[in-house]
Amino acid sequence: MSRSPQGGGMRGVAGGCCLALLGIVGDGFGSAASAEDWSFKPAIGAYESFTSNARLAPPGDEDWDFITDLEPSLVVHGAGSRFTLDLDASVKLLLYARDRSLSTALPSLMEANTTELIPDLLFLDTRAWVGQQPKNTGQAVSGSQFTGQQGATTATGIISPYIRNHFGDFADSQLRYTFSGFLGTSGVGSSMTNSLTETLVSGPQFQRVKWSVTGAASFSQYSNSGNTGSRRTHDLLAEVDGEYVIEDWVSALAGVGYESIRDETLDNQPNGPIGMVGVRLTGARTSLVLAFNHRFDSNYPSMDFSYQISSQSQIRASYAEGIDTTASLFATDVSFLATDAFGNFVDARTAQLFSLGNTGLGVQNSAFRQRSLTVGYVGVFDRDSVNASGYLEMRDGSRSESSETAFGGIVGWRHEISPLDEVGATLRFQHTSGGSSQGGTQNTVNLGISYSRKLSDTLTGVALYDFTDRFSTKSSDRFLENVVTIGLQKSF
To answer: What percent of the chain is predicted at pLDDT more than 70?
Structure first.
C-alpha cells in the first residue's frame, strides 16, 4: 500500500567494489528519530470487479465473472533513538460469484527494521517481502490486481546482525552474518542461505587513494523442486578494490580477487581469479561508473549511470552480469528495502517505489547466468508525476533449464485534479521467451486507468479499468481481458 503519492542484485555489479556501501542490507539507520514514535494505521478496502476472462483463457473460451475483494491491511511505523521499523501488510480475500474454485486469499507484506543493539557497535537488520510472482516464464498473469490470477505466492526474509568498528581515520570495518530464506507455494520450492562477510573500508586519511578489502562466504541449501533435486551450494570470495582520485570529477578503479562457486546445476562452475578496471566520473548532477570485469570465467562490461535533471527529476541506467538463482536475486533486492519521507517502501539504490520481479521471468530453482540492463526516469511537475522504466534480462540456462529472455517497459502518469481528486494511467509492455514456456514467445500489452476521490478524512472511493492483450506464438497462451473495478478504502 502506497501511503503518499510518489513520482515514481546481483553479484557482479558495476565497479565490483565496496567503497560505496559498507554492507548490503540497509544503510538508513541514521534516520532514526530521537524519541520513540509509534503509529498503527489499520484499514480495509471493499471492491467489486467484473472480469471478461476469469481464467485468462484463449479467445473463444472466455468466461466472465464478478469478484468481491475484501482487503484488510495494517501499516506500522516505529522510530526511536536506536531503532526504526516499518511494516505494511495486507491480504486480498477474493470471492468469485460464478466459478467458486477461483476464490482465493493473496497475502502481501513488506517490512524493514534496523536496531542498534549496542551503541555504535552491534546492529540488527531485518527485511521481509511477501507477494505473488509468475511461477513459470510466460505464465498468464492478469493485468488487474483485483483478480486471483497473479501467480504463486512467494516469501523472502532476511535476518542480519552485524558489528561495526572504527579505527580512527584509518579505516572502518563491518562483520556481518546474514540468514536469508525463500519460500514459494505451488511447488515453487524453498531455500536457505547462511553468509558471513567481513569488509574493511579506508577512512578519511585516504583522500586520493581509497581502498576496500572484502572476504565473504555463503552456503545455501535448496529443496527439491521442478527439474532440480535438493542440493547444497557455496560461494567463497576474497577481493581487494582500489580507487585513485585523479581529479575531483574523475577516478580510476581497479580490483583483484579470487572466487569459488559450487553449484551442481551450473554447466561450468567458476573457480579462479577475478579482476576489474574502470573509471568513475562525478559531476554536480551526473554520476557514471564504467568497468571492464573478469569474473564468472568470462569478460564483460558493467555500468551505473545517474543524472539529476532537476530537484524532482532524475534518469538512471545500469548494466550488470552475475550468476544467481531466483532466490538469491530476490534476497539481494529485498535487502535494499527502505522507506522514503512519506513512508512509502522504496529501493534504497534508486529511491523509487519498490518492485520485485516484475519482468515476467519465472521462479527458477537452478542457477543461471544473468545479464541485466535497466533504464528509469522519474519526474514531478506541479500536480503531475511521471515514472518510466525499461529493462532487458537474459538468462543462460543451466543443465536443467533452457535460456530465456525478457524485455519491456512501463510508463505511469498521475495527476492531482484537486486536493480531493486524482487520476492516473499506466501503460506496460512485456516480452518473454524461452525457459519453461518451451520455446514459446509472449508479448503482453496492458493499459490501466484509475480515478480516486477522497470522500472524507478516512474514506476514499476508487474506480479502475484494466485492459490486457497477450499475443503468443502458442495459440493456447493468448488471451484478452477487461476488468472494471469500483471500491471504497476506509482507514481508522
So the answer is: 90
d(CA 243, CA 211): 6
Can you list the positions of beta strands (E) in 97-151? 104-118, 122-133
**Residue 315 to residue 326: CA distance in whole angstroms:** 27
* Domain-located, residue 8: no
Task: Determine the structural domain holding residue 199 and report its residue range.
Answer: 29-491
**5: in domain:** no
Q: Is residue 334 part of a domain?
A: yes
- Whichever domain contains 414, its CATH number is 2.40.170
pTM: 0.88
- Classify 139 as helix, strand or coil: coil
pLDDT in tens, 162-214: 999 999 999 999 999 999 999 988 778 899 999 999 999 999 999 999 999 99
217 lies in a domain? yes
pLDDT recorded at residue 226: 62
CB-based contact 167:200 (threshold 8 Å): no
Q: How many residues does the chain have?
A: 492
Q: What residues have CB less than 8 Å from 145, skipping those under 6 apart? A: none
DSSP string across 236-251 = EEEEEEEEEEEETTEE
When divided into structural domains, the chain yields a total of: 1
